[in-house]
Amino acid sequence: MTLPLRSRSSGQPLARDAMAYVLAGGRGSRLHELTDNRAKPAVYFGGKARIIDFALSNAINSGIRRIGVATQYKAHSLIRHMQRAWNFMRPERNESFDILPASQRVSETQWYEGTADAVYQNIDIIAAHAPKYMVILAGDHIYKMDYELMLRQHVDSGADVTVGCLVVPRMDAVAFGVMHVDETDRITDFVEKPADPPGIPGQPDMALASMGIYVFDTQLLFDQLRRDAADPESKRDFGGDIIPWLVRNGKAQAHRFTDSCIRAADELEEYWRDVGTVDAYFDANLDLTDTVPQLDLYDRDWPIWSDAVVAAPAKFVHDEEGRRGSAICSLVSNDCIVSGATAQRSLLMTGVKMGSFSSVREGVILPYSNIGRGAQLSRVIIDSGVRIPEGLVVGEDPELDARRFRRSANGVCLITKPMIERLTT
């Protein structure tokens, strides 16, 4: 049995009157070749999910039944996933799921020019659903959160906008938008990636960093988007334009993640990760292999919904000395075959095949990859559909690895199809 951090709000759920709008158009360039053919929210995570499934699952679990997803960069993989995994919404129950690619709805020459513009261009679609509140979400973070609690604070505080915030060590906040707040958590200043972030009252060594989650009354949001669209100096961005304007001219309230994060009984701390770099993506996946992981994907009270792949169970074969199919401290998904091979502290996603005498230690292996006989791989991310040649060794010679593959600052090797093709031609 798992329990949320605190009990759900009493009374009529505000989520019934809300629409979640997920911004999923980002390229995710710091993931390098992992996003050559897919947007960052479409990158596989945790065995069978995609990154975007966390924001979408939070919305569904919070009681929100109207959802829009704005896509732009290399969106085919993302759109296909959402069509397969998220097609259970029913209009007759006042539910909706709209996929909103950039489609030059405002101008024949204008794609989405920023996060705010990605909402502005679809005002007519949002208005047709008539939500009272809008929950604006980033589609590229890993976390569990009850948006109903954030909605409740927004209404109770009378704010024009409520901004989801993380409490982080002050100097770790240099890569975020940072809130300067008063004793009531009203935002008095918003600074984008400051060199010297402001501290929190009473906690001078900590700062409030924006999570890219915003709650608005819908009509006020529409008014702000129209005002911003008419401003020739605007970059059409929530963090850069909309939120700072409301901080100066309205009431902006901070909502702390600790007040609405969802934790299972064994999760000791709130968990939020931006998996926007190769090392961060690798570490967050390997977090799941811990005996008591910081993020519990087995939480049946707050499930992470995804595509229900129809596939055979995982299979482990051979039981000879040196040729024994085994997995230690690993997650192994459906349709995997570990044939006389060993996986240690690794994630094998759907359809991975491992040949005899091969091994993976600390590996994140994306779907339908094939690891040849005798290959020895350590600290690797293998992109989907890659065929690792027999006998390939990765993780023992840093200089050789860096010449052949993408090697990160922390010594993680990202391996893709074109890299393997260059080795074999």
UniProtKB/TrEMBL annotation:
The keyword Amino-acid biosynthesis does not apply. Residues 312-415 form the Glucose-1-phosphate adenylyltransferase/Bifunctional protein GlmU-like C-terminal hexapeptide domain. GO terms for biological process: glycogen biosynthetic process. Its EC number is 2.7.7.27. It catalyses: alpha-D-glucose 1-phosphate + ATP + H(+) = ADP-alpha-D-glucose + diphosphate. One of its GO terms (molecular function) is glucose-1-phosphate adenylyltransferase activity. Transmembrane segments: none annotated. Keywords: ATP-binding, Carbohydrate metabolism, Glycogen biosynthesis, Glycogen metabolism, Nucleotide-binding, Nucleotidyltransferase, Transferase. Alpha-D-glucose 1-phosphate binds at Y112, G177, E192, K193, S210. The record marks Q72, W111 as: Could play a key role in the communication between the regulatory and the substrate sites. Residues 21-290 form the Nucleotidyl transferase domain. It is an enzyme of class 2 (transferase). Pathway: Glycan biosynthesis; glycogen biosynthesis. It holds the Pfam family Hexapep_GlmU. Signal peptide: none annotated. InterPro entries: ADP-Glc_PPase, ADP_Glu_pyroP_CS, GlgC_bac, GlmU/GlgC-like_hexapep, NTP_transferase_dom, Nucleotide-diphossugar_trans, Trimer_LpxA-like_sf. Involved in the biosynthesis of ADP-glucose, a building block required for the elongation reactions to produce glycogen. Catalyzes the reaction between ATP and alpha-D-glucose 1-phosphate (G1P) to produce pyrophosphate and ADP-Glc. Belongs to the bacterial/plant glucose-1-phosphate adenylyltransferase family. Homotetramer. PANTHER family: GLUCOSE-1-PHOSPHATE ADENYLYLTRANSFERASE, GLUCOSE-1-PHOSPHATE ADENYLYLTRANSFERASE-RELATED. This is Glucose-1-phosphate adenylyltransferase.
